[in-house]
Amino acid sequence: MIPTRLPSRARVPPLGWALLAAAATACASGRPSAGQEIGPASGSLVIVGGAMEDTTIVRTFLELAGGGDAPIVVIPTAGEGDDYDHFYPGLGQFRAMGAKNLIVLHTRDRSVADTEAFARPLREARGVWLSGGRQWRLADSYLGTLTEAELRGVLERGGVIGGSSAGATIQGSYLVRGDTRTNTVMMGDHQEGFGFLRNTAIDQHLLRRNRHFDLVEVIEAHPELLGIGIDENTAIVVRGDEFEVIGEGYVAIYDHGAMLDGGGRFYFLAPGDRFDLGRREAFRPSRTVEPLGRVERRTWPRR
After folding, report:
1. How far is CA 22 from the centre of its chain?
2. Are 39 and 242 in contact, with CB atoms under 8 Å apart?
């Protein structure tokens, strides 16, 4: 997927690895890249497993948006509060990294979210951030509204959508932990996400909260989905049908058509690893490029 000899990571920003991989895939395979089937056709996603104390993640998001002067919309609707304004504490980490043009957008009223006046800031945004809390609140407020359509418009213009915790899970197509009663139910009363990553189910706080077996249940029930579990202080940066892992922790992949050679139903990616969402293949940078070890293409047996 990449040239025989890799440049030093110190000289290649996170996005650069995804671009290197995309270009090299076509050369190495001798076949053209397939159309975007999972990720966005344009723009990018930064999907974070929670906590987000690693400044590399915020820096990457702002770089993809166009820098500190880029218009950024922050949506804190997943949180418990009824009202949010420009004093929202969640803006602090972006201001600390140089963001100067921040707007808070929030409503719990779907009729408001479906108006031109409410959604207007998204038409100028180069980046949108979905904060943490409970993902079903985002679904209740914005699914099927003009606001959701304008979020897609940000991507179509080449912008970036990021989110942490609940703001990560809502970006998948299947909404795990979407039950209004408790976040321990994986398949609850809300099951539809925004689908910026199609045919996926995204979980968060993976290792910190010992959740690494939880997506197995979802993929057994919905074997067509790709499960992606992301630990705290860790993110995937998605361009088209590829992502790279950045941050400090690990990402787990749950693919019903792949197992570890010892029978495990998921496997881990480390920072710097890349994943082809269309082919469902993982790659680890080295002097030569080989698929991730121990992963075999075989369907999960019934239990």
Report:
1. 18
2. yes
Q: How confident is the model at residue 291 (pLDDT cuts 50, 70, 90)?
A: confident
Q: CA 186 → CA 140, 214, 218, distances in Å?
A: 17, 7, 7
Say if residues 227 and 212 touch (Cβ distance below 8 Å).
no
Residues 6 or more apart in contact with residue 71 via CB below 8 angstroms: 101, 103, 121, 124, 125, 126, 127
Domains of the chain are 42-286 (3.40.50.880)
pLDDT at 24 over 50: no
Rg (CA), the chain: 19
Contact status, residue 190 vs residue 180, Cβ threshold 8 Å: yes
Question: Nearest to residue 190, comparing CAs of 198, 182, 180?
Answer: 180
Phi, psi of 50 (to 5 degrees): 115, 170
pLDDT digits (tens, 9 = 90+) for 213-263: 999 999 999 999 999 999 999 999 999 999 999 999 999 999 999 999 999
* Residue 277, SS3 per DSSP: coil
Look at the chain and count its residues.
Answer: 303
